[in-house]
Amino acid sequence: MKNRWERVHISPRHRHTTQMESQQLRPGGQSQVVFRASCVSSLWTCLVSFKTVQFNMQKKTDVDWFMGLSELMAFISITIMRGIIRRHPQRAQTDKFAAILNIWGLFVTNCITSYIPGRHITIDEQLFPSKTRCCFLQYSKPGTFGIRFWVACDLKTKYVCNILPYLGKDPTQPRGERVSESVVMRLMEPFLDKGRNVTTDNFFTSLSLAKQLLSRNTTILGTVNKIPQEIPLSTRQMHRNEFTTQVFSTTGATLTVYAPKWKKTVYVLSSMHSMIQTQDTAKKKPNTITLYNTTKCGVAVMDQMVREYTVRAGTWRWPVAVFYNMIDMAALNAHVLYQLCTGRQEKRVDFLLELARELAQTHVDMTKAQKEQLFRQQPSTPQLGKRAKCQAKIKCKDNHATVRCVDCYRYTCGKCRKEQWQCQDCE
């Protein structure tokens, strides 16, 4: 049977409404709120019942676990904050590192204030292997990519003194200023004016940087590329005799040109050497080359030590990857501080095991106390006509028991008890 439609004429001054709409509309035609609340969380709870969610989460799992109402509310709070931090467009435009900036800043500040480095500090890059989705992922070599960090560490102890993430081109950087120079000055800012020396590679070292550091009572030692205009033209010749050395000096800096083999030349700029001396050996190495070979390996050795017992795991979120790297560096720094404070040379693996035990001890004790409290709340004997299974299970498999241990309040059968009604674990 076909539906029959009738045409309805509507006058401009009258609106035709159905019977249901006329009953639902309120005077004035404005929407109103049925539930009144004074706080934000109460408005949320009128839409989502925490008790219902809590019951359904426990009902769908076979494991006997319990999540408190406050713990569930805290989890939802973290989930909402994660969505705000991850999707907030204004925060991402101002700072690409905003998702983990707060905890990262506290970590770097604590590293700076907890340790006074020695005379020699090494600055180099660290490429943390990661396949996370972020806009500042760096590709170094074929098959090698990750998040890049600029690291300053102590030469003797390999303590991470300061660290900066590389987030790409900085729009706030003044025009004409080199990235390498700004990185070194930012990393060395807490340690300037103390007479220290910084060792860098050819990416950072320049004559202008040496003059800036020298004005802050800090020297530099590092290799230099032969392309920059700061290098004299006479030093760029390729054919040199093997084991020959040339020295060029300028205001506050000395350039050493050494040929370790045929058609290979090494350029080392130093502001801490006023006189260059060569060794009395067959290779005739100058003292600048020898000192550079000794001090250049700080960051490389630190990265090798961190990767030996790393906590890194697979993840697609870059804040988690940065947090893994922070845990590795914090564990290495804590080991260095422990050795200096106690004077004991303990193996790093033993220190990490003890650190893991102490960090988990509070949670283990709290869980044990909650479990004992639940045992104490249960009756001392099972219900009338019922028997419970032995919870000690020291000598039995699934024996039944009717009496609890006087110490741990576990049901204990006759095989698992001693003279008193006490299990063998609590003896």
TrEMBL record:
Keywords: Membrane, Transmembrane, Transmembrane helix. PANTHER family: DUAL SPECIFICITY PHOSPHATASE 26 (PTHR46599:SF6), PIGGYBAC TRANSPOSABLE ELEMENT-DERIVED PROTEIN 4 (PTHR46599). The chain crosses the membrane at residues 33-53, 65-85, 97-116. It comes from the Eukaryota. Residues 1-25 are annotated as: Disordered. The keyword Membrane applies. It comes from Takifugu bimaculatus. Pfam families: DDE_Tnp_1_7. Residues 92-335 form the PiggyBac transposable element-derived protein domain. InterPro entries: PGBD. This is PiggyBac transposable element-derived protein domain-containing protein.
